[in-house]
Design a protein that fits this description.
The chain has helices at residues 11-26, 31-46, 67-77, 81-100. The protein has 101 residues and is mostly helical. It has 2 domains: 8-51, no CATH class; 66-101. Helix 1 (11-26) packs across helix 2 (31-46).
Length: 101
C-alpha cells in the first residue's frame, strides 16, 4: 500500500477528516496544509485506518477530540463562584429574551 493511500479508512474516519479540514480552511489555513493536519488529527484520534484486519479498533487512549473539554473545565474551575453565577444568570436572561421573539 503506497504512502498516503486512504483505502483502509472507514467512511466515518473520512468524514471526520473532511470536517477537520473544513475547520482549518475557515481559519485561513491553505487547502493542502489543512488536509495534512486533518489526517494527522484523525490518525491521532483513531490510531490509523480501521477498515479491515484483526485488532484494528484498539483505543489509543489519547483522543484529540476530547482535548478541548478538559481545557474548558480548568478555565471554569479557576473562576469564582460569584462570576460563574453571574454568567449563568446572564445566559438565562439571553435565552429567555431570544425565545420571546
Amino acid at each position: 500500500m503506497p504512502r498516503g493511500d486512504k483505502t483502509k479508512y472507514t467512511d466515518k474516519q473520512e468524514r471526520k477528516a473532511a470536517h477537520i479540514a473544513e475547520s482549518y480552511e475557515s481559519k485561513g489555513v491553505g487547502e493542502n496544509e489543512a488536509e495534512r493536519r486533518a489526517w494527522a488529527t484523525a490518525n491521532k484520534d483513531d490510531g490509523g485506518g480501521k477498515a479491515a484486519g484483526s485488532g484494528r479498533d484498539a483505543n489509543t487512549g489519547h483522543p484529540a477530540a476530547h482535548k478541548g473539554g478538559v481545557l474548558g473545565g480548568h478555565a471554569s474551575a479557576s473562576r469564582s463562584t460569584a462570576a460563574r453565577s453571574a454568567s449563568a444568570r446572564k445566559a438565562a436572561a439571553t435565552r429567555k429574551r431570544n425565545t420571546e421573539h
